[in-house]
Amino acid sequence: MSGFGERDFETAQLRIEQERSAGIGSVLAAMGRTGSDTCDDCGEMIGAARRQAMPSARRCVSCQSTFERA
Q: Residue 43: which region, alpha, beta or left (left: phi > 0; alpha: psi -120 to 50)?
């Protein structure tokens, strides 16, 4: 006899779906954020091409690269 019943399985599936929904919500919220004209890290202007490609950008390309390597 297994230690897990159908109710346990359903509870686990519900928890997985809740975590997935929360993750999707976080991504959608981040995508909807308004970016900035100036980099949060160095204060320099964020290029127009970067702002067009990534409207939610908060860092210039250089600072974003440094952030991602860290």
A: left
Beta bridge partners of 61: none
For 45, 47, 48, the CA distances from 53, given in Å and listed in that order, are 15, 10, 9
* pLDDT exceeds 90 at position 62: yes
Measured over the CA atoms of residue 32, residue 58, residue 67 and residue 52, the dihedral's sign is: positive
d(CA 35, CA 51): 8
- Percent with pLDDT over 70 in the chain: 84
Averaged over 41-60, what is the pLDDT? 91
As a whole number of angstroms, the distance between CA 45 and CA 5 comes to: 58
